[in-house]
Structure formats: C-alpha cells, structure tokens
Amino acid sequence: MKINCLSCGFKVDLDDMYDDFEGPIKCLCGALLEVRIEEGMLKGIRMAEPLSRPAAQAKGTGGATIRY
C-alpha cells in the first residue's frame, strides 16, 4: 500500500504488515502522519501534532546565564 504524505506528496510505501494498523507513520520529509488502516483499506489520515520537547539546559550551569 502507498500513502501520499499530506505535507510533501511523497508516496510512503507500507508493507502488508500494516493491513490493520492505527498509529503514526513518518515520511522522509519528517512529517508525522496519523493513519488508520483496516483490512488493507485506508480509513483515516491526518497530520499528527508535533511532539514538543522542553528546552534543554546546559550541563553544569544550573540554568544560570554565563557572562563573559
């Protein structure tokens, strides 16, 4: 089965193992697609919400500003 990416149009090729699948699929462009496939038929597709990561703090500074 091939699914067109909603972001870039790339055809994402899925194996037969995805004939009954619900979850995220990642395109080569980096877009995350939420898909629902039942009995080899695409039932739903949408762009997934990007995962937000908290900003990383520099090690050893304890979040303090370094001035030179």
Provide the descriptors you would attach to this structure in a database record:
single chain, 68 residues, mainly beta, 5 strands, elongated
Specify the overall morphology.
elongated
- H and E string: EEEEE
Number of helical segments? Answer: 0
Largest sheet: 3 strands, antiparallel
Unreliable stretches (pLDDT < 50, length at least 5) are: none
Q: Strand tally, please? A: 5
- In angstroms, what separates the terminal alpha carbons? 57 Å
Strand order of the largest sheet: 3-4-5
- Integer average pLDDT: 85
Q: Give helix % range.
A: under 10%
Explain this structure:
The chain has a domain at 2-47. It has strands at 2-4, 11-13, 21-26, 32-38, 41-47. It is mainly beta and 68 residues long. 3% of the residues are buried. Helix content is 0%, strand content 38%. The protein has a 3-stranded antiparallel beta sheet with strand order 3-4-5, with no helix packed on it. A hairpin with a 2-residue loop joins strand 4 and strand 5. It is elongated and about 60 Å long.
Give the helices and strands, then pairings.
Blueprint: E1 2-4, E2 11-13, E3 21-26, E4 32-38, E5 41-47
Antiparallel strand pairs: 1-2, 3-4, 4-5
